[in-house]
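Researcher: Let's try something more involved. This one mixes different molecule types, so please make sure each is placed in the same coordinate frame as the others.
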Amino acid sequence: MLQLDDKIRDRFSLIKNAHVAYLDNGATTQKPDCVLKAVEKYYNEENANPMRGIYELSVAATDAYENARAAAAEFINAGDASEIVFTRNASESVNLIAYSYGMSQVNEGDEIIVSTAEHHSNLLPWKHVAEVKKAKVVFYDPEPDGEFDIDKLSTLLSDKTKIVAITQVSNVIGRINDIKAISKLVHEKGAVLVVDGAQAIAHIRVNVKDLGADFYVFSGHKMYAPMGIGVMYGRKEFLEKMPPFLFGGEMIESVTKERTTYAEVPHKFEAGTVNVGGAVGLHAAMDFIKQYGFEQIVARENMLTSVALDGMREMPYVDIIGGDMVCNHHGIVAFRVEGVHPHDVAQIFADAGVCVRAGHHCAEPLHRYLAQFAGTRINSSTRMSIAMYNTVSEVERFLDVLSSIRGLMGLS
Amino acid sequence: MSNSLYNEIINEHNLRPYHKRALENANYTLEGVNPSCGDEITLELFIEDGIIKDAAYEGEGCAISQASADIMADMVIGKTLDEAIHLSDLFLKMIKEGVSEEELEELEEAGILESVSHMPARVKCAVLGWRTMKELIEPLKDNN
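Model: All components are placed in one shared frame. Result:
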């Protein structure tokens, strides 16, 4: 186990060389040198098309890919490596579930419950399924503080409910949802639970079995891995029954003119040449995280979040969305500055070398929903999001800029 | 850079706009939206004998979109449709490819938004008012 302190920054070339405070980790994290080197090593020493060649290089590529799958299964405590399907990202993972499971299991008059806090990635695929299958999307609204009331879910669930889609950690307000309690209710009604883990996976220990998630999706690039590799975890009993989503090479057992027999899971869902380099990078990123361990990661990210929240609390013109308790944020703090539009806020941060995000963060329904309680028509916000390599001085730099914004905009 | 973008003129137009109001005698109205930021304006014009006699707008958005719309409204009052379209073209040119010193002078106060040309994320904010104005009056040109 490595000690987690500011020295971790030496392991990221971009962070060492850039002079910015990178606080947009909810969008994507930076990549440590060990991840980039692992990808390079794969291409320099083991690259071949996996699964098909019988020569040594292809075997090495297959091993690299399947080792990454096993590592991902272990990382989230899946029951079996075959429950891990590699995709491009969390969005593609949800699309896979929607097109395959959704389109085959949802029928006319059925209901899909989607939380109002979802990233568009875990909303639009379900809206599409509902449209095509003449089913209905039912929204599960949080309370004004962002917390989901479990009792409210009980009233929404019915025999018509086929799927419930909810995020583990909100990409806007950072709130963690009680997936374990939710899965119990969902399963009592015989529905399946799809969990978006994109904002959780790099920040807390995820145990899909303990959570009771039937499907769990995440992107590699938000957890120190390269862009273009993601995971769709699905319980084997579902995966085996689901039809393929993409058709092509490597997803079949045999093809004749009349008949096609599909390969076993997970290969059934991985048509075409797969992203071995990405999977190797993801494997290295998981090892990187494990070198520090989630106990240290959670402690450091909470410490940094608390420095941010303490400073923001001193600024009466700053409205923190989702309350100011550290335990509710998981490194994500979205806020509004009174009288200043979020895009101007982010611009001033950018000009001062602080990278934050402005807009509705691909969660327009949540912004519109929360704006009504905040008494504002502005349905967007500015978001700072922390990773384990951020430092106290970066957060202080963020606070300095934040305190100067109203003045720069001509407000007192 | 922030000091040059959020200067006193932009802040003044954003905080105390001259033309952000409803125009009672407006005879032409068009809504403009910048979907990437969520900026929106409703532009209202009173046009008579081919001349923009009055201009106003209402809306929500970032300082750049609102100040730019306010400056635009200020500049097109008293202009013919052709003159207003010419100004809009010149403004878009300034943002997209750059303008000569003479052209910059022609743009008067709007010229202070020149630095937006280096900020791809803010271009749509800056051009919203100008694009909406051009869209609104271009079809009228042939009728006059």
